[in-house]
Amino acid sequence: MPFDRPNTDPRIASQPLISFEGVSKTYATRQRTSVSALADIDLAVPAGSVLGVIGRSGAGKSTLIRLVNGLERPDVGRIRVGDAEISALDERALRRVRRGVGMIFQHFNLLSSRSAFGNIALPLEIEGRGKAEIRARVEELLALTGLEDQRDRYPSELSGGQKQRVGIARALATGPSVLLSDEATSALDPETTRAILALLRRINRELGLTILLITHEMSVIRAIADRVAVLENGRIVEQGDVFEVFTRPQAEVTRTLLAGEMGLTLPAALAAQLGREPVSGAAAVLRIAFRGPHANDPIVARLARETGIEANILSGTVDEIAGQPFGSLAVSLPAGPDVVVRARAFLDAHGLVSDLLGYLPARSAEDRHVA
Ligand SMILES: Nc1ncnc2c1ncn2[C@@H]1O[C@H](COP(=O)(O)OP(=O)(O)OP(=O)(O)O)[C@@H](O)[C@H]1O
């Protein structure tokens, strides 16, 4: 069973705009074998929310997004977008539904022979809208995406970030209620990524657009998503509010994907010395997670005062996840009988989650100074 936590954000509707019920998808390969790309997917994207699906390469992310716009069909299960059951529609009906579903891509997919204006106008031309209406709508979208000065430039004359802005404006041209984002920032540098994610967040808030995005980067989820689903080998192994999943990851793959993002990794030199077994004199290393109001607690001082256990701070961060404070601290404990059990009981009693990372040889633990 995947770990599943309910939606707790009052801003987000309880009614899903996109839903997957018991969806599985296999591909036949040329070698006459089959590949299970998705299995038993249950997923709901509440109207007005941003849901991020994260997973490693080959986890099934692209397949999931292609099922939403009907580019792939499931073997079993149902996929709904609004009132339409995508999995049951013929091609003609699908085309109608797709008008309400915009999509942006990693490599932008712009027409090189058209200017920014021309690319954004294209979906409206296909719909047969009048010239004046098209002009007015495109001007509006150029302003929304900050592209007024680039309107006559061609894709080859635009930066990656500008190209993606054109992609976003084009996706919004026909006024969709859903935006699908397929690794939309993976080809961009970190600063441009932040700007594009901020634009998407603004569009979500201001236009009430529901966004389903797939990514392999936790930083993207953290910057924009309300909820996250973690895919591994075609299955959802964990889903829930971003703060919940980030601060209490349950699945191993989630922990691994989060390690760099959350300052959960130890300094490399220490990590290299960390062993699994408590050899004689070795110091246990704990990672303590501080959530919400506890993020700034002087917990190490209290641990010493109340239990006599003097922990040594190895590394630590205080940060914000989904607008709420979150801290993470790695400490080494002095060797001794029951020290780990007593320290963890103390932390537990104070509502703090701790993980035992391993053991450091006595010397390197003593050499560390308080950060
Ligand atoms: N058309 C296809 N024919 C056969 N197998 C496929 C096809 N498309 C995808 N697969 C397989 O299905 C699984 C899921 O692929 P998918 O592209 O959905 O993963 P992904 O998470 O998007 O990966 P990436 O991040 O590398 O794009 C993989 O094992 C892949 O090899």
Tell me the layout of helices and strands.
Elements: E1 3-4, E2 16-28, E3 34-46, E4 50-55, H1 61-68, E5 76-81, E6 84-85, H2 91-98, E7 101-105, H3 116-126, H4 131-144, H5 160-172, E8 178-182, H6 190-207, E9 210-215, H7 218-224, E10 227-232, E11 235-241, H8 242-247, H9 252-259, H10 268-273, E12 283-291, H11 299-307, E13 312-321, E14 324-332, H12 339-349, E15 353-360, H13 362-367
Parallel strand pairs: 1-11, 4-9, 4-10, 7-8, 8-9
Antiparallel strand pairs: 2-3, 2-5, 5-6, 10-11, 12-14, 12-15, 13-14
The protein binds adenosine-5'-triphosphate.
Tell me about this structure.
This protein is of the alpha/beta class. The chain folds into 2 domains: about 5-260, Rossmann fold (3-Layer(aba) Sandwich); about 270-365, Alpha-Beta Plaits. Helix content is about 35%, strand content about 30%. The protein has 13 helices and 15 strands. It has a 7-stranded mixed sheet with strand order 1-11-10-4-9-8-7, with helices on both faces. A 4-stranded antiparallel sheet has the order 3-2-5-6, with helices on one face. Strand 5 (about 75-80) and strand 6 form a beta hairpin. Helix 3 (about 115-125) packs across helix 4 (about 130-145) and helix 3 packs parallel to helix 5 (about 160-170). The model has no long low-confidence stretch (mean pLDDT about 90). It binds adenosine-5'-triphosphate. Adenosine-5'-triphosphate (ATP) binds near residues 35 and 61. Adenosine-5'-triphosphate binds near residues 27, 29, 57, 59 and 60. It comes from Methylobacterium planeticum. Part of the ABC transporter FtsEX involved in cellular division. Important for assembly or stability of the septal ring. Belongs to the ABC transporter superfamily. One of its GO terms (molecular function) is ATP binding. One of its GO terms (biological process) is amino acid transport.
